[in-house]
Amino acid sequence: MWKDFVMKWKPKVDEKLVEFFKGKEDLASRFKDINERALSFAEDFTVSGGKRVRPILFLAGYISQGKEPDDSILKVAAAIELIHSFLLIHDDIMDKDEVRRGKPTVWKRFENAGFDRHTAYSMAITTGDLVYTYALQLVLESGLPWEMREVVLRNMLRTVEDTGYGQNLDVYFPTKPVEEVSPEDVMLVYKQKTGYYTIVFPLTTGAEIAGADKGTLEALSDYGLKVGIAFQVHDDILGVFGDPEKTGKPVGNDIREGKRTILVLEAYRRGSPEDKEIIRRYLGTDDEEGIKKVMEVIERTGALDYAKELERNLVEEGKKALEKAKISEEIRTFLKEFADYLITREK
Amino acid sequence: MWKDFVMKWKPKVDEKLVEFFKGKEDLASRFKDINERALSFAEDFTVSGGKRVRPILFLAGYISQGKEPDDSILKVAAAIELIHSFLLIHDDIMDKDEVRRGKPTVWKRFENAGFDRHTAYSMAITTGDLVYTYALQLVLESGLPWEMREVVLRNMLRTVEDTGYGQNLDVYFPTKPVEEVSPEDVMLVYKQKTGYYTIVFPLTTGAEIAGADKGTLEALSDYGLKVGIAFQVHDDILGVFGDPEKTGKPVGNDIREGKRTILVLEAYRRGSPEDKEIIRRYLGTDDEEGIKKVMEVIERTGALDYAKELERNLVEEGKKALEKAKISEEIRTFLKEFADYLITREK
Predict the structure, then answer these.
(1) What residues of chain A lie within 8 A of the CB of B121, using their CB?
(2) Closest chain B residue by Cα to residue A126
(3) Least CA distance to B39: which residue of chain A?
(4) Three-state SS for A99?
(5) Cα–Cα distances in Å, from A304 out to A177, A312, B171?
(6) Structural fold of domain A1-144
(7) Rounded CA gap, A187 and A306, in Å?
(8) Which of A86, A176, A225, B169 could make a disulfide contact with A180, Cβ separation 3.0–4.6 Å?
């Protein structure tokens, strides 16, 4: 079962994370209470909650080539989670999100500590920069042979770069009228921000340093891109039609937040002039009746069915891509189950 | 003359910067106009204006060991300027600064392009993250032997880390009442944010990869820390008593902005209860009469003379530290002249 794999490796990654933060305490404390606080916010935000999807995919890639992760590899896995943490810390400022994984976001923790909003944002920007720096330090100090560190660093930097471009698009699109953003536009963001960053990067990096051949890396990349986009599409479905008791978010949440998701853009493309008007009018509003109307348009135009079919097809294509990969049977099964999970999960 | 050294190397560093940004255009353009814009803002902000102090100190350190910088070394010098650019981009958000080097800051450019304030901040956060990433990529792809890249990366990451702690203090102190911040507290920020970051890091890194011995690195570090703090103290003097026609800032500017500088904190420590009351009352206000009163307190208590003596002593100590360094006479002269310049400049 893929969950057993997760339960086996997650604690080992977490141990490295805790160990790393512990090693920073002495230095941070020399810079007064504010930096001790920044460090403890960063640690708690990183370690508590979260599924460690990216470190575990990295380990899966490594193990797929018949290798057993040692201390150095676990450090790199932890570094990959630190990259995720850094991106979330900055992302939460941009989205003004106050809660993540049921706990306050980093900027909100500073605000809760008594700082005004802008000061809280400022400290969270710096805390994010620190966590990014920690991630790179952890790779550099991992003890891996240099050729491997070079691969990890190059892929990591390229991923942060691509995710940055995706992030700019993500901030940019909601500033444009809905009719000026196409489903293809958001697919570009899904490809970068979820496909490459969440799946392709960790999985292929793990496989590459374990010595996977070019064909295998291509197959894993193909798998990751498809499954990653499916993952995001499923998120979009849950963000509108998910069970609030399971997702922790109210019905129609993404409509209320005005997100330009594939569901909304596909419904807009397919909709009648009246449907289009409903979307333009109620997307990003608090009007509960209007939000329900937008949800009806998404169903009536077939955009919801389209999204469900899309995610199923992507997962099937992704699983098929694995056929060309030379990987252990254990990991092949894991990756297939993982793909199925991503589009059947209810939260 | 130290200025000839600057005039010789600055154009070569700038050439590498322009070349690097050019190489990114194709990728950024695949992510729509917003990322082309982010890239061009980052490039213009980095390349136009600025003295390239840090890359030039890095080159001076390298040359001090009798070596001639090649293409790889110039790329690392450019990367050091990118680190500076990244830190400024984020710093300008935190300080809400709209202008730097006579041109709009990066977040302000996004605002000028029509985005609301928070969206502009968000895009500038991401642009800063991208520029940090570019800096590290440039080192990784510099073509330097791995042992040297490792030294550069380790020192660079440690410097960003220390500067981050300093930055948090810099944001933190102004939120505290003036009586709760000591001159020693701000000295800690000066040490990290200016001493290590601006001088020690580039100078010793250049010398280290050129093969300087331990004693020389210690001497250069000693020089850099002292001269760096003197540089910051001089900035503080100019920030209050500088000629507005030369500094481009009104008289008493740092008082108006409420900065906790060594001048103010030393005056507060030395002042009578009435002096202390004046500082508490007018620091960070627009009251022109009050600002003049604070300036008088700084002079009357001897804090200004103290600062002037401090910067002179630090520069003398710094120059003396150079005696123990095994460096070329050309660079020894350069570093001495550079130190003198830092505390005699009028802007």
Answers:
(1) 93-94, 121
(2) B164
(3) A165
(4) strand
(5) 21, 12, 47
(6) Farnesyl Diphosphate Synthase (1.10.600)
(7) 14
(8) A176
Query: Residues of chain B whose pLDDT is less than 70?
Result: none
For residue A174, the chain B residue with the least C-alpha distance is B119
pLDDT digits (tens, 9 = 90+) for A97-136: 998 888 999 999 999 999 999 999 999 999 999 999 999 9
- Report CA-CA distances (Å) from A236 to A229, A245, A321: 11, 17, 24
Tell me the ipTM for this assembly: 0.95
Contacts of A148 in chain B (CB under 8 A): none
What's the CATH class of domain B182-347? mainly alpha
Residue contacts between A and B (CB atoms, under 8 Å): 146
Q: Say yes or no for a CB contact (<8 Å) between B133 and A32.
A: no
Q: What is the pLDDT of residue A248?
A: 78
Distance from CA of B332 to the nearest CA of A (A): 33
Residues B218-249 pLDDT 10s: 999 999 999 999 999 999 999 999 988 888 78
Domain ranges of chain A: 1-144, 193-347
Task: Estimate the crossing angle of helix B214-241 against helix B329-342, to 10 degrees.
Answer: 20
Nearest-by-Cβ selection for A171 from B119, B129, B153:
B119
Q: What pLDDT score was predicted for residue B248?
A: 78
Q: Which two tokens stand for residue A43?
A: 């640690």
- In a mutational test of the B interface, the residue from A133, A137, A147 whose CB has the highest number of chain B CBs within 10 Å is A133
Please tell me the predicted confidence (pLDDT) of residue A49: 81
Question: What top-level class would CATH report for the domain A193-347?
Answer: mainly alpha
Q: What is the pTM of this model?
A: 0.95
